[in-house]
Amino acid sequence: MTTKNEGLHAGGFIVSEANGARSREQIVVVAGQTLSAGAVLGIVNASGKYAAYDNGAADGTQAAVGILLEAVDAAAADQPGVALVRDAEVNAAELDYSAGSSGGADITAAIADLLALGIIAR
Asked: What is the pLDDT of residues 33-66, one digit of tens each?
């Protein structure tokens, strides 16, 4: 029998968020990124566009500033997206740190950055 693995669903990591769209912002994901729902994001200082969080970087993406609501394929060009950027609770186990994380210390740093924005990872 074939085993199938179900990926992350759009917003499936959200436990709760503020009323209306207060927790969310429309963003632009920088070209060269293919990100899944739940990807932890940073902002590239030079462009103001969003990319995968990378605690070891020095371009602005070393600070976690949000979580991508649904998958975005920006491999060929910048693409619009929606991110959770404030006042929410999320399931930490369902977040995607893989794009720029090298392990537990980076995940701990990302969770601390998100907490400063009012995003509580449980």
From this structure: 999 999 999 999 999 999 999 988 999 999 999 9
For residue 100, which of 46, 58, 28, 52 has the smallest C-alpha distance? 52
Give the residue extent of every domain in the chain.
21-121
Q: What is the pLDDT of residue 98?
A: 73
- Average pLDDT value over all residues in the chain: 91
Q: Which CATH architecture has domain 21-121?
A: Beta Barrel (2.40)
